[in-house]
């Protein structure tokens, strides 16, 4: 597993729950508490151990923890900006998820995100299926979609539906979305 994912778990635990929780989780999971390496390849067992241990330490259901991680990802400006290039609306963003696997590999060679198949099921309604054996990706994706909907200012209902995720856009103007521009202003007027 790419170090980017392992490092993301570490950063989430440190940012949301503190260095003390990271120290407890890393010690219990057998990971160096000084931190993980972004460009290293880890076995899948390392991610499993980190999530399992964090779930126990935080007294959270595994899926709740994974969804929290997914919801935290769009709060990282670097990730948020890359994701916002996917479309000017949340609907465009959802439709672009089929390309996420390939875009991830362009940004970080060796990153193997699951492939996502997006199907339109009705007006502003979508069904997302992951081509991954690991069902842990579903709650991560659900949290990620909710976080991105918030970023766009959209009310979206994301639910697991028979081994898929259903996404329904209930309100495009639910809240004011976060500012995003492809052009950065260099001079203040």
The tally of structural domains comes to 2
Helicity, as a percent range:
40-55%
Radius of gyration: 17 Å
Q: What proportion of the residues form beta strands (DSSP E)?
A: 5-15%
What are the secondary-structure elements, in order, as H or E?
HHHHHHHEEHEE
Number of strands: 4
The largest sheet is: 4 strands, antiparallel
Question: CATH homologous superfamily of the largest domain - what is it?
Answer: H-NOX domain
CATH architecture of the largest domain: Alpha-Beta Complex
Shape: globular
CATH fold type of the largest domain? H-NOX domain
Poorly predicted runs of 5 or more residues: 185-189
Structural class determined from secondary elements:
alpha+beta
Round the mean pLDDT to the nearest integer and report it.
87
The CATH C-level name of the largest domain is: Alpha Beta
What is the terminal-to-terminal distance? 47 Å
How many helical elements? Answer: 8
Describe the strand arrangement of the main beta sheet, using strand numbers: 1-2-4-3
Overall description:
The structure is a single chain. This protein is α+β, with helices and mostly antiparallel strands and 189 residues long. It folds into two domains: 3-60; 74-171, H-NOX domain, CATH 3.90.1520. It contains eight helices and four strands; from the N terminus they run αααααααββαββ. α1 packs parallel to α3 (44-58). The protein is globular and about 50 Å long.
């Amino acid at each position: 597993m790419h170090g980017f994912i392992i490092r993301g778990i570490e950063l989430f635990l440190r940012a949301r729950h503190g260095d003390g929780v990271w120290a407890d989780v890393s010690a219990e999971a057998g990971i160096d508490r000084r931190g993980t390496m972004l460009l290293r390849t880890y076995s899948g067992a390392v991610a499993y151990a980190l999530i399992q241990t964090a779930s126990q330490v935080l007294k959270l259901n595994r899926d709740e923890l994974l969804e929290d991680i997914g919801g935290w990802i769009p709060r990282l400006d670097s990730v948020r900006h890359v994701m916002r290039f996917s479309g000017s609306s949340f609907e465009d963003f959802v439709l672009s998820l089929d390309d996420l696997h390939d875009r991830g590999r362009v940004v970080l060679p060796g990153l193997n995100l699951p492939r996502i198949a997006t199907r339109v099921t009705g007006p502003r309604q979508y069904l997302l299926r992951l081509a991954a054996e690991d069902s842990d990706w579903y709650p991560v994706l659900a949290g990620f979609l909710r976080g991105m909907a918030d970023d766009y200012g959209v009310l979206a209902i994301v639910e697991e539906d028979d081994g898929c995720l259903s996404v329904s856009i209930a309100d495009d103007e639910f809240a004011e979305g976060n500012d995003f521009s492809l052009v950065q202003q260099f001079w203040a007027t």
